[in-house]
Design brief:
With 387 residues, the chain is α/β, with parallel strands linked by helices. The protein has 14 helices and 12 strands. The chain has 2 domains: 283 residues, TIM Barrel; 81 residues, no CATH class.
Length: 387
């Protein structure tokens, strides 16, 4: 697999020169300065590509060319937004950039409640506390009938363990973690400049009123069928990112959560350019998923790999696991053998050795990812030596 790294552009504190020194081969990035829905011009694409190549690297994957909310829920302007998307794809294809990671998750790209969960060894990781998420949903967001979406044990934990420690500062931190810090740095709907993020979030949720999973699937197929001719013309591979976490949240439909979901979107648009970003971390955050079996089953339709893995706890919480988790080693083995050359990037590594003081984007440390890259590189070498 090609060893790639998610990089957030020239203002990223982690430089391309640093990445070249630690063995990175390809860059995963986007034109983050262009607002969602607007066309990525050929000039801007080439400018970014040249900048990366001047540092001895290549632009391997776009993550992401964002799919506007209106395309997802089927708004009146979706056809124009799809035309803009197609033009951006053409400009990427002309420049030779042909792997596009995107998602079809309504409103939230990913969700965690704690961005610096302390580990016994002094590092910290991302963490999803189901009871804290329920507290946000029921007591801060105040979504109608939200309590019906949680089991009694989660509600008990919320009342007895979470609520007693939730003062104004703790509630603010929870809002920041769930809807601000994990979203704004990736062309998200909410940024750190928003003064009333919860109110804005409620407005975004309202856009999906009456949109169920079947409707969202139909809208995804509509989008993919519209762009496939451009993908055919330029050899562009579209690879959808699984839902993170892989379950319905906040009353929103989620349609890339499991084996049946993956098969459904691949069958709905059987073009080989319609494929999957195999994020072992997102899929493993659902106890219902056998991540190794899914890797084996969908390797041929995978165009991009995210190398991380989650551990699901007995109470439904989940956290990032070591990059030497046996399941992830087996996933790497599958893709190294079945999809040689497919781009792979390290994801959601721990904060360590001063990472927490550097202001890196949540989940995107330097030292933690560098250690994880070394681990996965070693696994890849062992696989190629027949181990």
């Amino acid at each position: 697999m090609e060893k790639t790294w998610r990089w957030f552009g020239p203002n990223d504190k982690i430089t391309l020169d640093m990445l070249r020194q630690i063995g990175v081969e390809g860059i995963v990035t986007a034109l983050h300065h262009i607002p969602n829905g607007e066309i990525w011009s050929e000039e801007e694409v080439v400018k970014m590509k040249n900048f990366i190549e001047e540092h001895g690297l290549r632009w391997s994957v776009v993550e992401s060319l964002p799919v506007s909310e209106s395309i997802k829920y089927g708004g009146s302007d979706r056809d124009q937004l799809i035309e803009n998307y197609k033009e951006s794809l053409r400009n990427l294809g002309k420049a030779g950039i042909k792997t596009i990671c995107y998602n079809f998750m309504p409103v939230l790209d990913w969700a965690r409640t704690d961005l610096e969960y302390q580990n016994p060894d002094g590092t910290s990781n991302l963490y999803f506390n189901r009871a804290e998420f329920a507290y946000f949903d029921i007591n801060i967001l105040k979504r109608e009938n939200a309590a019906q979406d949680y089991d009694e044990e989660t509600l008990r934990r919320m009342r007895e363990e979470v609520a007693p420690r939730m003062d104004k500062d703790a509630e603010h931190r929870l809002v920041e973690n769930i809807i601000v810090k994990t979203q704004g740095f990736v062309n998200g709907n909410i940024t750190e400049d928003d003064l009333e993020p919860v109110n804005k979030f409620r407005e975004l949720l309202e856009l999906y009123k009456g949109i169920d999973a079947d409707r969202l699937r139909a809208n995804m197929a509509y989008f993919l069928n519209a762009i496939m001719p451009v993908c055919d013309e330029y050899g562009i591979d579209m690879c959808v990112h699984p839902d993170d976490p892989p379950m319905p949240i906040l009353g929103l439909p989620r349609i890339v959560t499991c084996d049946a979901d993956i098969r459904a979107f691949l069958d709905a648009v059987p073009n080989p350019h319609n494929g999957l970003t195999f994020c072992a971390g997102s899929l493993s955050a659902g106890a219902h998923n056998d991540v190794v079996e899914l890797a084996r089953k969908y390797a041929s339709r995978t165009h991009f790999v995210h190398a991380r893995i989650c551990k699901v706890l007995s109470n439904g919480d989940f956290k990032e696991s070591t990059h030497l988790d046996p399941r992830l080693i087996e996933v790497v083995r599958i893709f190294e053998k079945e999809r040689p050359g497919v781009p792979m990037r390290i994801d959601h590594a721990p904060l360590m050795l001063g990472d927490g003081e550097m202001g890196y984007n949540a989940g995107y440390s330097f030292h933690g990812r560098m250690l994880a890259l070394g681990m996965i590189s070693g696994v890849m070498a062992a696989v190629n030596e027949g181990a």
